[in-house]
Amino acid sequence: MSNENPFPSPVGGVPMASDFGISIFFSLLYLSLIPIFVSRLYNKHSRVIVSINAIITTIERVIIFSLRAWQSRNSAERTSPTLTTYMQVTIALPYIVIAHDVVVLLRCLYVNSTKGSAGFTDPRDSPVAPSMSPSIHLSDEIHIHDDPKKRFFYRWFTDVLKLAFLAATIPGIIGNAHYRGGMDNASTANEVMITRYLSSGIALFLILFVAALVVRARKLPKVEPIHITILLSILACNASSAIFRLLFMYHRTTSLTSIAPGSGNTPLEKATFYIFHMLSDWLAVALLLVPNIRAIFKTGMWGDWRAVDPPSQEQEWARRRKEVKARRSGLIV
Q1: How would you write 202-250 as a 3-class SS string?
Q2: pLDDT tens-digit profile of 31-60?
Q3: C-alpha 200 chain-centroid distance
Q4: d(C-alpha 222, C-alpha 93), whole Å
């Protein structure tokens, strides 16, 4: 498809014949993560819903890379406006959603750091589990007091932060969903350009802000180096995708199949797309699916979903139930 009026170049270009092999490779690469998720889901000690967005992204990427492989062998479908628009939307959003999931894990770290200890503590406990004792001794030098007020603030703040990601997600959806219209209308093309830049710019700002909160979390009680390493690694992958998009999206083209510089279809542009966007997205997803996130971050199955602590009577009942279950499973004697 060609047009006299230039429109925003598609991120990743369109699948040429040379994209067949790399599309199959990435389809299999993402597909390899699905059995890992299934095994995590099957094991009750690693079953967690916090990483649900990661598996949704994985399935979506298997689909789009399968479609790209098919398009690379079918020149008639290579320039399909519908498929191009669909791919622009699905390529644009996952790194933002994964960064949002980092906030969910970061919330667990912050909330856990405010909790004292009950007489019994389940090692698989989650941040929503109650804190029964006003304090906990981690060592002779460290003495942690239970702090419900700080816990409430952390929950409120991360709720606001998660909502802030809508400021990046909504323009990304709107801009890329209107990509088809931008091919034929100069005004719509400008709107697509602006909204895509807004989405990636806001996303990068939020990613860097969350990274600063992760670095700050190093000083919190119960936070270990592995927590910081995993979260910063995921955010680095997310930032790679955002930066790539910001550096590329100013380009315009008059044809989806153009191989001119800036079209997204040159070998160099394809290579940078696959390395700094698609591979970085895969690494971010893998870091959420391969490690046992539930055990490492003490998320429980659902993460920290409470807005406030439960009533004291409910806390005591939950503590006793966990203690009975732990005795039966041999966690305590």
Answers
A1: HHHHHHHHHHHHHHHHHHCCCCCHHHHHHHHHHHHHHHHHHHHHHHHCC
A2: 999 999 999 988 888 888 888 899 999 999
A3: 14
A4: 32
How many angstroms separate the CA atoms of 145 and 45, rounded? 28
Report how far residue 209's alpha carbon sits from residue 206's, in angstroms, rounded to the nearest whole number.
5
Amino acid at 227: H
* Residue range 230-270, pLDDT digits in tens: 999 999 999 999 999 999 999 999 999 999 999 999 999 99
Nearest to 6 by CA among 189, 269, 273: 189
Distances (CA, A) of 110 to 64, 105, 232, 311: 36, 9, 15, 21
Token pair in block for residue 272: 């940078």
Structure tokens at 107: 């919330």
Q: If phi over 0 gives left and psi between -120 and 50 gives alpha, with beta otherwise, what is residue 330?
A: left
By residue count, the chain amounts to 333
Mean pLDDT, each 10-residue run in order, the chain (333 residues)? 81 95 97 94 88 93 96 91 95 96 95 70 49 44 72 94 97 95 93 97 98 95 95 98 97 94 96 97 96 91 77 66 67 48
Whether the CB-CB separation of 107 and 158 falls below 8 Å is answered with: yes
